[in-house]
Amino acid sequence: MTRQVLMFAVALALAACASTAQVKRYPMEGDVKALDASSKTATIAAGKIGDWMDAMTMDYPVKPDSELAKLKVGDHIKATVMVEDEKYYVTAITVVAKP
Question: How confident is the model at residue 26 (pLDDT cuts 50, 70, 90)?
Fold first, then answer.
């Protein structure tokens, strides 16, 4: 029984270490070029995003669904990009100008 408890504690400690990846937040500004409701993504032509990415047009997952719902193609937006390891998404979107 003691061995099982020890193994459980080790597994729990390893899981805690694996989940300590920091989420980084970057401000973003750009233009919405396309929307895909089925994949919950927006194609955004964005300027340079901090030290994370140079200016480019690419697909970004958008979370939550309510943020995606307020976008229209042609909108100029300001938002926050959340980055954790290789995963990223856009949130906290403000439409600055409509087409």
Answer: very high
**How distant, in Å, are the alpha carbons of 52, 55, 89 from that of 47?**
11, 4, 16
Q: Is the pLDDT at 10 greater than 80, yes or no?
A: no
E strand residue ranges, 1-99: 24-36, 41-46, 56-61, 76-84, 87-97
Contacts of 39 (CB under 8 A, 6+ apart): 59, 61
- pTM, two decimal places: 0.78
CB distance 91 to 76 below 8 Å? no
Enumerate the H helices of the chain as residue ranges.
Answer: 2-18, 65-69
At the topology level, CATH places domain 23-97 in OB fold (Dihydrolipoamide Acetyltransferase, E2P) (2.40.50)
Q: Report yes or no: 41 and 67 within 8 Å, Cβ to Cβ.
A: no
